Amino acid sequence: MDSNKDKDNRVYDMHPICAPATPQGSGAIAIIRLSGENCIKILNDVFTSAGGKKDTLMKLDGYKMALGTISDEKELLDEVMVSVFHAPHSYTGEESAEIYCHCSSYIIEHIIMLLISKGIKMAEPGEFSKRAFLNGKMDLAQSEAVADLIASETEAAHKVALDQMRGGFSAELKELRSKLLHVASLLELELDFSGEDVEFADRKKMKALLRKVEEKVDSLTESFSLGNAIKNGVPVAIIGSTNTGKSTLLNTLLGEEKAIVSNIEGTTRDSIEDTMNIGGTMFRFIDTAGIRDTRETIEIIGIERTFSKLKQAEIVIMVLDATRPEYFKKSLATLSERLDKSRQRLIILINKADEINPDFCIDKKNTGNKAEEHARDSYDPLGKLLSDVEMICSDSGFDEPEGFLMVVLPVSAKLMLNMDKLKTLLINSQKNKKIKSGSTLVTNIRHYQALKDARKSLDRVDEGLKDNLPTDLIAQDVRETIYHLGSIVGEISSQDVLENIFGHFCIGK
Questions:
Q1: The CATH number of the domain where 475 resides is what?
Q2: What is the pTM of this model?
Q3: Is 410 in contact with 332 (CB distance < 8 Å)?
Protein backbone atom coordinates (compact mmCIF):
# COMPACT_ATOMS: atom_id res chain seq x y z
CA MET A 1 0.00 0.00 0.00
CA ASP A 2 1.65 3.25 -1.16
CA SER A 3 -0.91 5.87 -0.19
CA ASN A 4 -3.25 6.79 2.62
CA LYS A 5 -5.88 9.37 3.59
CA ASP A 6 -6.00 11.46 6.73
CA LYS A 7 -9.15 12.63 8.50
CA ASP A 8 -9.62 15.46 5.96
CA ASN A 9 -9.27 13.07 3.01
CA ARG A 10 -5.89 14.39 2.00
CA VAL A 11 -4.11 11.72 -0.05
CA TYR A 12 -0.43 11.31 0.62
CA ASP A 13 2.32 8.93 -0.42
CA MET A 14 3.36 6.29 2.13
CA HIS A 15 6.19 4.95 -0.02
CA PRO A 16 9.35 4.59 2.13
CA ILE A 17 11.82 7.46 1.88
CA CYS A 18 15.34 8.12 3.14
CA ALA A 19 17.70 11.09 3.42
CA PRO A 20 20.75 12.20 5.40
CA ALA A 21 19.67 14.21 8.47
CA THR A 22 23.09 15.71 9.13
CA PRO A 23 24.93 18.21 6.91
CA GLN A 24 27.83 17.29 4.67
CA GLY A 25 31.30 17.74 6.03
CA SER A 26 33.77 16.13 8.36
CA GLY A 27 32.64 14.81 11.72
CA ALA A 28 32.32 11.69 13.81
CA ILE A 29 28.74 10.52 13.19
CA ALA A 30 26.17 11.01 10.44
CA ILE A 31 22.46 10.19 10.62
CA ILE A 32 20.35 8.76 7.81
CA ARG A 33 16.59 8.85 8.37
CA LEU A 34 13.97 6.51 6.93
CA SER A 35 10.19 6.69 7.02
CA GLY A 36 7.28 4.99 5.35
CA GLU A 37 5.64 1.63 4.93
CA ASN A 38 7.97 -1.37 5.41
CA CYS A 39 11.05 0.80 5.84
CA ILE A 40 12.14 -1.17 8.93
CA LYS A 41 11.77 -4.47 7.05
CA ILE A 42 13.82 -3.16 4.13
CA LEU A 43 16.53 -1.88 6.46
CA ASN A 44 16.47 -5.20 8.33
CA ASP A 45 17.36 -7.02 5.08
CA VAL A 46 20.73 -5.22 4.87
CA PHE A 47 21.45 -5.10 8.60
CA THR A 48 23.21 -7.75 10.65
CA SER A 49 23.37 -7.43 14.41
CA ALA A 50 26.63 -7.62 16.35
CA GLY A 51 25.61 -11.13 17.36
CA GLY A 52 25.19 -12.19 13.73
CA LYS A 53 21.38 -12.23 13.73
CA LYS A 54 19.40 -11.06 10.68
CA ASP A 55 15.94 -10.32 12.14
CA THR A 56 17.06 -8.04 14.96
CA LEU A 57 15.28 -4.89 13.73
CA MET A 58 11.97 -6.68 13.17
CA LYS A 59 11.94 -7.70 16.84
CA LEU A 60 13.39 -4.48 18.23
CA ASP A 61 11.11 -2.39 20.46
CA GLY A 62 10.52 1.22 19.56
CA TYR A 63 12.92 3.86 20.89
CA LYS A 64 15.66 1.24 21.28
CA MET A 65 18.93 0.84 19.37
CA ALA A 66 20.82 -2.07 17.91
CA LEU A 67 24.52 -2.35 17.09
CA GLY A 68 25.47 -4.09 13.88
CA THR A 69 26.71 -3.74 10.33
CA ILE A 70 25.23 -2.74 6.99
CA SER A 71 26.40 -4.66 3.95
CA ASP A 72 25.51 -4.96 0.32
CA GLU A 73 25.98 -8.19 -1.60
CA LYS A 74 29.66 -7.40 -2.23
CA GLU A 75 31.10 -5.70 0.83
CA LEU A 76 30.68 -4.46 4.37
CA LEU A 77 29.82 -0.74 4.26
CA ASP A 78 30.02 0.26 7.92
CA GLU A 79 29.46 -0.66 11.53
CA VAL A 80 26.38 1.28 12.65
CA MET A 81 23.78 1.86 15.34
CA VAL A 82 20.14 1.68 14.27
CA SER A 83 17.06 2.94 16.13
CA VAL A 84 13.48 2.15 15.16
CA PHE A 85 10.19 3.97 15.78
CA HIS A 86 6.92 2.15 15.29
CA ALA A 87 3.88 3.99 13.91
CA PRO A 88 2.26 6.15 15.09
CA HIS A 89 4.93 6.92 17.73
CA SER A 90 7.42 8.63 15.44
CA TYR A 91 8.16 12.10 14.12
CA THR A 92 6.26 11.44 10.89
CA GLY A 93 3.62 9.22 12.45
CA GLU A 94 4.81 6.42 10.17
CA GLU A 95 7.12 3.47 10.65
CA SER A 96 10.55 5.10 10.90
CA ALA A 97 14.21 4.33 11.55
CA GLU A 98 17.52 6.13 11.91
CA ILE A 99 20.98 4.88 10.97
CA TYR A 100 23.95 6.27 12.88
CA CYS A 101 27.01 5.66 10.72
CA HIS A 102 30.50 7.13 10.47
CA CYS A 103 30.56 10.56 8.84
CA SER A 104 32.20 9.63 5.57
CA SER A 105 30.71 10.89 2.32
CA TYR A 106 31.57 7.50 0.76
CA ILE A 107 29.74 5.57 3.50
CA ILE A 108 26.68 7.86 3.49
CA GLU A 109 26.41 7.78 -0.29
CA HIS A 110 26.72 4.00 -0.54
CA ILE A 111 24.25 3.29 2.28
CA ILE A 112 21.68 5.56 0.60
CA MET A 113 22.37 3.94 -2.80
CA LEU A 114 21.85 0.52 -1.18
CA LEU A 115 18.53 1.60 0.35
CA ILE A 116 17.37 3.05 -2.99
CA SER A 117 18.26 -0.24 -4.72
CA LYS A 118 15.94 -1.98 -2.24
CA GLY A 119 12.98 0.22 -3.20
CA ILE A 120 13.29 3.23 -0.88
CA LYS A 121 12.99 6.64 -2.53
CA MET A 122 15.16 9.68 -1.84
CA ALA A 123 13.13 12.13 0.22
CA GLU A 124 12.15 15.48 -1.24
CA PRO A 125 13.06 18.69 0.66
CA GLY A 126 10.90 18.92 3.76
CA GLU A 127 9.14 15.62 3.10
CA PHE A 128 9.58 14.25 6.62
CA SER A 129 7.89 17.33 8.12
CA LYS A 130 5.27 17.23 5.37
CA ARG A 131 4.38 13.68 6.31
CA ALA A 132 4.28 14.66 9.99
CA PHE A 133 1.69 17.30 9.08
CA LEU A 134 -0.36 14.99 6.86
CA ASN A 135 -0.37 12.33 9.57
CA GLY A 136 -1.62 14.82 12.16
CA LYS A 137 1.57 14.84 14.23
CA MET A 138 1.75 18.61 13.93
CA ASP A 139 -0.21 21.34 12.20
CA LEU A 140 1.03 23.50 9.35
CA ALA A 141 2.27 26.33 11.56
CA GLN A 142 4.23 23.87 13.69
CA SER A 143 5.70 22.27 10.56
CA GLU A 144 6.91 25.65 9.35
CA ALA A 145 8.36 26.35 12.78
CA VAL A 146 10.62 23.31 12.39
CA ALA A 147 12.39 25.03 9.50
CA ASP A 148 12.58 28.27 11.48
CA LEU A 149 14.09 26.45 14.45
CA ILE A 150 16.78 24.90 12.28
CA ALA A 151 17.56 28.29 10.71
CA SER A 152 17.54 30.24 14.01
CA GLU A 153 20.79 32.09 14.69
CA THR A 154 19.89 34.06 17.82
CA GLU A 155 18.41 33.22 21.21
CA ALA A 156 15.26 35.21 20.40
CA ALA A 157 14.72 33.45 17.04
CA HIS A 158 15.26 30.09 18.73
CA LYS A 159 12.75 30.91 21.48
CA VAL A 160 10.05 32.06 19.07
CA ALA A 161 10.46 29.07 16.74
CA LEU A 162 10.49 26.61 19.65
CA ASP A 163 7.31 28.10 21.09
CA GLN A 164 5.57 27.83 17.72
CA MET A 165 6.80 24.28 17.18
CA ARG A 166 5.37 23.32 20.57
CA GLY A 167 2.00 24.71 19.50
CA GLY A 168 1.86 28.07 21.31
CA PHE A 169 0.69 30.00 18.23
CA SER A 170 -1.57 27.14 17.14
CA ALA A 171 -3.28 27.06 20.54
CA GLU A 172 -4.20 30.75 20.27
CA LEU A 173 -5.57 30.25 16.77
CA LYS A 174 -7.54 27.22 17.94
CA GLU A 175 -9.16 29.35 20.65
CA LEU A 176 -10.09 32.05 18.14
CA ARG A 177 -11.54 29.54 15.71
CA SER A 178 -13.49 27.87 18.49
CA LYS A 179 -15.19 31.17 19.35
CA LEU A 180 -15.99 31.87 15.72
CA LEU A 181 -17.24 28.33 15.16
CA HIS A 182 -19.70 28.87 18.01
CA VAL A 183 -20.98 32.04 16.33
CA ALA A 184 -21.15 30.33 12.93
CA SER A 185 -23.04 27.40 14.41
CA LEU A 186 -25.71 29.67 15.90
CA LEU A 187 -26.05 31.53 12.59
CA GLU A 188 -26.39 28.21 10.75
CA LEU A 189 -29.16 27.24 13.14
CA GLU A 190 -31.00 30.48 12.36
CA LEU A 191 -30.79 29.61 8.67
CA ASP A 192 -32.14 26.11 9.35
CA PHE A 193 -35.09 27.57 11.25
CA SER A 194 -35.47 30.73 9.15
CA GLY A 195 -39.14 30.08 8.59
CA GLU A 196 -39.86 30.27 12.32
CA ASP A 197 -38.43 33.78 12.83
CA VAL A 198 -36.12 32.78 15.70
CA GLU A 199 -32.77 34.31 16.64
CA PHE A 200 -30.33 31.84 18.17
CA ALA A 201 -27.34 34.20 18.03
CA ASP A 202 -27.85 37.10 20.43
CA ARG A 203 -26.50 40.05 18.44
CA LYS A 204 -25.25 41.92 21.49
CA LYS A 205 -23.29 38.93 22.78
CA MET A 206 -22.07 38.20 19.26
CA LYS A 207 -20.66 41.71 18.90
CA ALA A 208 -18.88 41.44 22.25
CA LEU A 209 -17.34 38.10 21.25
CA LEU A 210 -16.29 39.46 17.88
CA ARG A 211 -14.59 42.43 19.62
CA LYS A 212 -12.43 40.01 21.57
CA VAL A 213 -11.55 38.06 18.43
CA GLU A 214 -10.70 41.27 16.59
CA GLU A 215 -8.46 42.47 19.42
CA LYS A 216 -6.53 39.20 19.37
CA VAL A 217 -6.21 39.17 15.59
CA ASP A 218 -4.96 42.77 15.70
CA SER A 219 -2.47 41.89 18.44
CA LEU A 220 -1.08 38.97 16.45
CA THR A 221 -0.92 41.06 13.27
CA GLU A 222 0.95 43.87 15.02
CA SER A 223 3.44 41.38 16.46
CA PHE A 224 4.67 40.58 12.93
CA SER A 225 6.94 43.63 12.89
CA LEU A 226 8.93 42.31 15.86
CA GLY A 227 8.56 38.67 14.89
CA ASN A 228 9.79 39.23 11.35
CA ALA A 229 12.75 41.25 12.65
CA ILE A 230 13.69 38.44 15.04
CA LYS A 231 13.43 35.82 12.32
CA ASN A 232 15.00 37.67 9.38
CA GLY A 233 16.94 40.42 11.13
CA VAL A 234 16.08 44.02 12.04
CA PRO A 235 16.07 45.83 8.66
CA VAL A 236 18.66 48.63 8.62
CA ALA A 237 18.81 50.75 5.45
CA ILE A 238 22.09 52.51 4.72
CA ILE A 239 21.29 55.50 2.52
CA GLY A 240 22.87 58.71 1.35
CA SER A 241 24.27 60.50 -1.68
CA THR A 242 26.79 58.87 -3.99
CA ASN A 243 30.34 58.36 -2.72
CA THR A 244 29.56 59.06 0.94
CA GLY A 245 31.01 55.70 2.00
CA LYS A 246 27.87 53.57 2.30
CA SER A 247 29.44 50.46 0.76
CA THR A 248 32.59 50.92 2.83
CA LEU A 249 30.42 51.11 5.94
CA LEU A 250 28.63 47.89 5.00
CA ASN A 251 31.91 46.08 4.40
CA THR A 252 33.32 47.35 7.70
CA LEU A 253 30.27 46.26 9.68
CA LEU A 254 30.22 42.81 8.09
CA GLY A 255 34.00 42.35 8.14
CA GLU A 256 34.14 41.32 4.49
CA GLU A 257 34.15 42.84 1.01
CA LYS A 258 30.45 42.42 0.38
CA ALA A 259 29.94 45.56 -1.71
CA ILE A 260 32.11 47.02 -4.46
CA VAL A 261 33.86 50.21 -3.34
CA SER A 262 34.82 52.76 -5.99
CA ASN A 263 35.33 56.50 -6.38
CA ILE A 264 33.09 56.38 -9.46
CA GLU A 265 29.64 57.78 -8.69
CA GLY A 266 26.74 55.39 -9.14
CA THR A 267 28.82 52.23 -8.59
CA THR A 268 26.10 50.65 -6.41
CA ARG A 269 23.16 50.17 -8.76
CA ASP A 270 21.03 47.85 -6.64
CA SER A 271 20.57 47.10 -2.96
CA ILE A 272 22.93 44.63 -1.31
CA GLU A 273 21.81 42.82 1.84
CA ASP A 274 23.49 40.74 4.50
CA THR A 275 22.88 39.92 8.14
CA MET A 276 25.03 40.16 11.24
CA ASN A 277 24.48 39.12 14.84
CA ILE A 278 25.30 42.08 17.11
CA GLY A 279 24.87 41.61 20.83
CA GLY A 280 22.46 38.72 20.36
CA THR A 281 20.22 40.57 17.87
CA MET A 282 20.23 39.84 14.16
CA PHE A 283 20.44 42.95 11.97
CA ARG A 284 19.82 42.90 8.23
CA PHE A 285 21.91 45.64 6.64
CA ILE A 286 20.82 46.98 3.26
CA ASP A 287 23.34 48.98 1.23
CA THR A 288 21.41 51.06 -1.28
CA ALA A 289 22.19 52.96 -4.45
CA GLY A 290 23.43 56.51 -3.93
CA ILE A 291 20.78 59.23 -4.22
CA ARG A 292 21.54 61.91 -6.82
CA ASP A 293 20.05 63.58 -9.89
CA THR A 294 20.77 61.35 -12.87
CA ARG A 295 19.42 60.47 -16.29
CA GLU A 296 21.06 57.05 -16.42
CA THR A 297 18.20 54.53 -16.67
CA ILE A 298 19.69 51.71 -14.59
CA GLU A 299 20.81 54.11 -11.89
CA ILE A 300 17.32 55.66 -11.73
CA ILE A 301 15.85 52.20 -11.11
CA GLY A 302 18.43 51.66 -8.35
CA ILE A 303 17.48 54.94 -6.67
CA GLU A 304 13.78 54.02 -6.81
CA ARG A 305 14.65 50.77 -5.07
CA THR A 306 16.58 52.77 -2.47
CA PHE A 307 13.40 54.61 -1.52
CA SER A 308 11.51 51.29 -1.48
CA LYS A 309 14.05 49.77 0.94
CA LEU A 310 13.89 52.94 3.01
CA LYS A 311 10.18 52.35 3.63
CA GLN A 312 10.82 48.77 4.77
CA ALA A 313 13.59 49.69 7.23
CA GLU A 314 13.10 49.89 10.98
CA ILE A 315 16.39 51.77 11.39
CA VAL A 316 17.77 54.21 8.82
CA ILE A 317 21.45 55.08 8.72
CA MET A 318 21.96 58.30 6.77
CA VAL A 319 25.60 58.62 5.69
CA LEU A 320 26.88 62.16 5.09
CA ASP A 321 30.32 62.96 3.67
CA ALA A 322 32.22 65.29 6.03
CA THR A 323 34.20 66.63 3.06
CA ARG A 324 31.04 67.72 1.22
CA PRO A 325 28.91 69.67 3.73
CA GLU A 326 27.19 71.53 0.88
CA TYR A 327 25.07 68.40 0.29
CA PHE A 328 23.89 68.06 3.91
CA LYS A 329 20.76 70.20 3.64
CA LYS A 330 19.46 68.62 0.43
CA SER A 331 20.18 65.06 1.63
CA LEU A 332 18.45 65.55 4.97
CA ALA A 333 15.50 67.36 3.36
CA THR A 334 14.99 64.42 0.96
CA LEU A 335 15.20 62.00 3.87
CA SER A 336 12.74 63.96 6.01
CA GLU A 337 10.07 63.74 3.31
CA ARG A 338 10.25 59.96 3.14
CA LEU A 339 10.74 58.84 6.75
CA ASP A 340 7.94 57.49 8.89
CA LYS A 341 8.92 59.29 12.10
CA SER A 342 6.37 57.40 14.18
CA ARG A 343 7.88 54.01 13.31
CA GLN A 344 11.44 54.41 12.09
CA ARG A 345 14.56 55.43 13.97
CA LEU A 346 17.42 57.43 12.51
CA ILE A 347 21.20 57.41 12.92
CA ILE A 348 23.06 60.15 11.05
CA LEU A 349 26.71 59.34 10.41
CA ILE A 350 29.16 62.04 9.39
CA ASN A 351 31.60 59.80 7.58
CA LYS A 352 35.24 60.60 6.69
CA ALA A 353 35.54 62.62 9.89
CA ASP A 354 39.24 61.72 9.92
CA GLU A 355 39.73 63.85 6.81
CA ILE A 356 38.43 66.88 8.70
CA ASN A 357 40.72 66.14 11.64
CA PRO A 358 43.43 63.45 11.22
CA ASP A 359 43.50 62.88 14.98
CA PHE A 360 39.76 62.20 15.09
CA CYS A 361 38.91 60.06 18.11
CA ILE A 362 35.97 60.25 20.53
CA ASP A 363 36.03 58.67 23.97
CA LYS A 364 32.90 60.11 25.56
CA LYS A 365 29.85 57.82 25.46
CA ASN A 366 26.84 59.04 23.50
CA THR A 367 23.50 58.17 25.04
CA GLY A 368 21.36 61.17 24.12
CA ASN A 369 19.82 62.63 21.01
CA LYS A 370 22.45 65.33 20.44
CA ALA A 371 25.98 65.22 19.03
CA GLU A 372 28.81 64.95 21.46
CA GLU A 373 29.85 68.19 23.11
CA HIS A 374 33.31 66.75 23.53
CA ALA A 375 33.79 66.56 19.77
CA ARG A 376 32.47 70.07 19.33
CA ASP A 377 34.77 71.49 22.00
CA SER A 378 37.91 69.66 20.91
CA TYR A 379 37.73 69.88 17.14
CA ASP A 380 36.24 73.07 15.79
CA PRO A 381 35.82 72.00 12.11
CA LEU A 382 34.19 68.75 13.08
CA GLY A 383 32.20 70.41 15.84
CA LYS A 384 30.84 72.94 13.36
CA LEU A 385 29.68 70.14 11.06
CA LEU A 386 27.90 68.45 13.95
CA SER A 387 26.20 71.71 14.89
CA ASP A 388 25.18 72.35 11.28
CA VAL A 389 23.62 68.88 10.99
CA GLU A 390 21.69 69.33 14.23
CA MET A 391 20.41 72.71 13.08
CA ILE A 392 19.29 71.28 9.74
CA CYS A 393 17.58 68.39 11.51
CA SER A 394 15.77 70.75 13.84
CA ASP A 395 14.58 72.90 10.91
CA SER A 396 13.42 69.77 9.06
CA GLY A 397 11.29 68.50 11.96
CA PHE A 398 13.49 65.55 12.90
CA ASP A 399 13.04 66.34 16.60
CA GLU A 400 9.36 65.38 16.46
CA PRO A 401 8.01 63.11 17.71
CA GLU A 402 10.15 63.11 20.82
CA GLY A 403 12.98 60.61 20.73
CA PHE A 404 12.85 60.16 16.96
CA LEU A 405 16.38 61.39 16.24
CA MET A 406 18.65 58.82 17.85
CA VAL A 407 22.06 60.43 17.37
CA VAL A 408 24.43 62.30 15.06
CA LEU A 409 27.70 60.41 15.14
CA PRO A 410 31.02 61.24 13.44
CA VAL A 411 32.76 58.13 12.09
CA SER A 412 35.39 56.88 9.71
CA ALA A 413 34.15 53.72 8.04
CA LYS A 414 37.45 53.27 6.23
CA LEU A 415 39.54 53.48 9.43
CA MET A 416 36.81 51.71 11.48
CA LEU A 417 36.61 54.62 13.95
CA ASN A 418 33.50 54.70 16.16
CA MET A 419 32.18 51.43 14.70
CA ASP A 420 31.83 49.98 18.20
CA LYS A 421 29.77 52.99 19.21
CA LEU A 422 27.53 52.52 16.15
CA LYS A 423 26.97 48.88 17.09
CA THR A 424 26.09 49.93 20.64
CA LEU A 425 23.48 52.33 19.25
CA LEU A 426 21.97 49.52 17.20
CA ILE A 427 21.84 47.19 20.20
CA ASN A 428 20.28 49.87 22.42
CA SER A 429 17.59 50.53 19.81
CA GLN A 430 16.23 47.03 20.45
CA LYS A 431 16.39 46.95 24.25
CA ASN A 432 12.73 47.82 24.68
CA LYS A 433 11.67 45.15 22.19
CA LYS A 434 12.43 42.04 24.21
CA ILE A 435 9.95 39.20 23.97
CA LYS A 436 7.47 39.21 26.83
CA SER A 437 7.09 35.91 28.65
CA GLY A 438 4.17 33.96 27.24
CA SER A 439 3.61 36.32 24.29
CA THR A 440 3.03 34.97 20.80
CA LEU A 441 4.84 36.50 17.83
CA VAL A 442 3.95 36.08 14.18
CA THR A 443 7.11 35.52 12.13
CA ASN A 444 5.79 34.10 8.87
CA ILE A 445 4.58 36.35 6.04
CA ARG A 446 1.97 33.73 5.07
CA HIS A 447 0.54 33.82 8.58
CA TYR A 448 0.59 37.62 8.56
CA GLN A 449 -1.34 37.78 5.28
CA ALA A 450 -3.89 35.23 6.52
CA LEU A 451 -4.46 37.32 9.66
CA LYS A 452 -4.93 40.44 7.52
CA ASP A 453 -7.47 38.60 5.37
CA ALA A 454 -9.25 37.36 8.50
CA ARG A 455 -9.46 40.94 9.79
CA LYS A 456 -11.05 42.08 6.53
CA SER A 457 -13.69 39.38 6.88
CA LEU A 458 -14.33 40.44 10.49
CA ASP A 459 -14.78 44.02 9.30
CA ARG A 460 -17.46 42.82 6.89
CA VAL A 461 -19.17 40.97 9.75
CA ASP A 462 -19.17 44.22 11.74
CA GLU A 463 -20.66 46.12 8.83
CA GLY A 464 -23.25 43.41 8.26
CA LEU A 465 -24.40 43.49 11.88
CA LYS A 466 -24.49 47.27 11.85
CA ASP A 467 -26.58 47.34 8.66
CA ASN A 468 -28.80 44.42 9.75
CA LEU A 469 -27.86 42.34 6.72
CA PRO A 470 -29.47 38.91 6.22
CA THR A 471 -28.09 36.11 8.40
CA ASP A 472 -26.74 34.13 5.44
CA LEU A 473 -24.46 37.01 4.38
CA ILE A 474 -23.12 37.49 7.90
CA ALA A 475 -22.60 33.74 8.26
CA GLN A 476 -20.60 33.68 5.02
CA ASP A 477 -18.19 36.34 6.31
CA VAL A 478 -17.78 34.46 9.61
CA ARG A 479 -16.98 31.30 7.64
CA GLU A 480 -14.40 33.20 5.60
CA THR A 481 -12.76 34.41 8.81
CA ILE A 482 -12.60 30.83 10.09
CA TYR A 483 -11.15 29.74 6.76
CA HIS A 484 -8.34 32.33 6.84
CA LEU A 485 -7.39 31.50 10.43
CA GLY A 486 -7.57 27.79 9.66
CA SER A 487 -5.31 28.16 6.62
CA ILE A 488 -2.46 29.09 8.97
CA VAL A 489 -2.48 25.71 10.69
CA GLY A 490 -3.86 23.72 7.75
CA GLU A 491 -7.33 23.24 9.24
CA ILE A 492 -9.55 24.50 6.45
CA SER A 493 -12.15 21.76 6.30
CA SER A 494 -15.66 23.01 5.51
CA GLN A 495 -16.98 20.28 7.85
CA ASP A 496 -15.87 22.17 10.98
CA VAL A 497 -19.07 24.20 11.35
CA LEU A 498 -21.28 21.16 10.81
CA GLU A 499 -19.34 19.06 13.34
CA ASN A 500 -19.62 21.86 15.90
CA ILE A 501 -23.40 22.00 15.48
CA PHE A 502 -23.80 18.26 16.03
CA GLY A 503 -21.44 18.40 18.99
CA HIS A 504 -23.35 21.06 20.89
CA PHE A 505 -26.95 20.91 19.75
CA CYS A 506 -29.63 18.33 19.16
CA ILE A 507 -31.36 19.63 16.04
CA GLY A 508 -33.20 16.43 15.23
CA LYS A 509 -35.65 17.22 18.02
A1: 1.20.120.430
A2: 0.71
A3: no
